[in-house]
User: Fold these one by one.
Assistant:
Number 1:
Amino acid sequence: MKAGRYISFLFLFLACMAARSQDFHFSGFIPNRTFMNPAAAVMPVSPEFTVTYRNQWPGIPATFVTYGAAFILPVESMKSGLGVNVLNDVQGDGVITRTYVGLSYGYRIDLQRDWQVGAGISASYVFRKLDADELVFRSEILNELGYGYSAVTLENQTRSYPDFAIGMVVQNGYGFSAGISVSHITRPEESLSSQFNSRIPLKYAGFIKTRFGSSSRYSGLSVTFEPSAFYSRQAKNEELIWGMQAVFSSVFAAGAWFRQNLRFNYDAVIFSVGILMEKYNFFYSYDVNLKKLNFLSTKMGAHEVTFLYRMEYKGRKARAVECPAYAMLFK
């Protein structure tokens, strides 16, 4: 057994149970909006493949890690888009895991003056598991020290269920976009024990983003500013992320955001950088913890990495191109 995991496992296990039915989240909500809004499946103009990785609380032995992969295939002849999402959320070094495998479909309406509206629906199948073998109990520690305590027996538990979400996105050719989504619309039962009922609360989410910028005729340097905000609410838990990033010559991006609730209790400040190429986008962000959790406060934070590969375009002709990955191109 790894030294120092005993207390951490117990602490994180209790934290997981107290925060039951709460979803994963990403600080980079724009490049990762495919995982949060099914309408995003219809917005790209060429096939895209995205992978993302998030490591929450990396300074302690048992972390919360999320892996995600998504593929989007536009079908221009039908003004539609298809998406496949796979996501694995690991809590407490594998004590609790959720694996999501989902399909999404979106339909786009082209309005006048370069406006588009997309609506989408997603259907996922979720596998949830409690791995009791990863838990270390107080009795095990004391028995190793020579004290006689009854062993705690806890069996592995699994559960699987279907899950559904709906969403809508509106955007134009000048850098504005906004969207709303509702997840867990059937409120599936996810309890690992037959003695308890635990239906997943509905999750409401929305985002808004715009863009403005300038360029120098002498240096050739252009700077684009992109303020954005994201809000979600699930039961009594809410999250507001707001801030802005600057994009330099459509090649390099840097930004900062705050994460808080509506009572102005700040949770973290998020710093991000990105490299933007024609076919490749790379984003990295780090959450700096603002909460005081005694000795854990200096060990909190999160690393998040997102990589996007944009395949060869064979669909809509572009009138304007917005970087990074969430390009908005029009006929």
Number 2:
Amino acid sequence: MKIRKISILSALSLGLVIAFAGCKKDDGAVRSSVTINDIPAITTSVDASGSQAIDLLNLSAFSGKFNVALYFAGAASPTKVDIVVRKNGSNANVKVYQAGVTTLPASYTVTSANLQTLFGTAVSLGDSYDFAPDIYIGDKKFEAFPAIAGSGSGAGPVAMPGFSDFARFSAICAYDPAIYVGDFKVVSDGFGDFSPGEIVPITKIDNTHISFIDPYVTSPLPITVTVNPLNNQLSITKQKIGNAFTWALGYTNPNMAMAATASSFAAPCSKTLTMSITYTVDQGSFGAYTLVLKKP
């Protein structure tokens, strides 16, 4: 069993590093050689009234809706935006979906036929499509998905509450609760509680909830996992899983939590569960580790 450490971040130390890193004697609030463009923060989010994912078993039924809007009400609008779409996270594979948009907010609907026409190939399992705006300020263009890779939005806007960098639609097999019951085999466990090949029984609670137990805690409690059948994303509301870890009884009241993100999902076609779980105890946090389970 590997030794795990609790990470504690010192805000003061981090602040000092940031304050002194890269300072030069001619640095000021704004250096004279720097040109600053006032680029509005634009949020692009999936509309809950449309399809949340692309069901490969019913492609023609896909009707994804998304909204594009200024994040700050009353902010100055850009000259225009082009709504673009990126396939499979590759900034080298971006197409224009709607050019020359001058009025925000704006709403759009996309179908599987639209995606096939844009990219010239049929939608396949595991494909993902990210919609976001290229922003024009005067004659300058700021790309949603720059060719050099990465995000076109700075860390500041991305971290703001309710801000969405892009609207993603992924091609999935529809969730089937009948699959997610019985014995699952551990493929990998970043946290190291489970060993590859170990069997983990999965219990069906209802059509959108399952549970399992971590036997490596004292007085283990069932861990409830919520499934969003619209996009197969998984989440765990922070919950106590036992009284202490058996490999270190000094770590008390262990908890698991998992946000509903693209990193945690059910894949019915391959009968797998991928869960990016955050582990905490009274003494602090171990961070997030990925547990992958597969039905034999």
